[in-house]
Design goal:
By secondary structure, the chain is an alpha/beta fold. It has helices at 14-31, 44-52, 70-87, 99-110, 124-133; strands spanning 5-9, 36-42, 57-61, 91-94, 115-117. This is Glycosyl transferase.
Amino acid sequence: MSQEKVLLIRMQPLGDVAAIGIPALRYFRSRLSEANIEALSFAQGKTLLKLAQPDVRVFGLEQQEWPDNIIPAMETFLGLAEQIVSEGYDQIINLDTGFMPCFLARFLKDAGEPVVGNYMSISVQELLEQFQQQTLSLST
């Protein structure tokens, strides 16, 4: 049997990477000691996670790779999704609540990936349709 492969997502803000991401990473390392656990983070969060848990592969985006405008940001995150899908994770856990990480998690879930945690309540397809029609509802 192959080793279970788990991805934890905690991209921002940096304080939450320290307060949530590191303890979560350590928790899952203790609970899934035989699993290959990896982490997705952003900019300095990547460095922080690597320092806290040097035996864990950490990857993600650098500051200049995350566009300020929504459409280029979505394109960047869809590219990140392709990379994640190609890794073949057995479990993807999104600990982030920011829009782009939740967009990424929802896209992965819509693509059939084993995502748990936080993600958008509507599909990426619905989001894009509402965006195109400019009818995006801000309901909670």
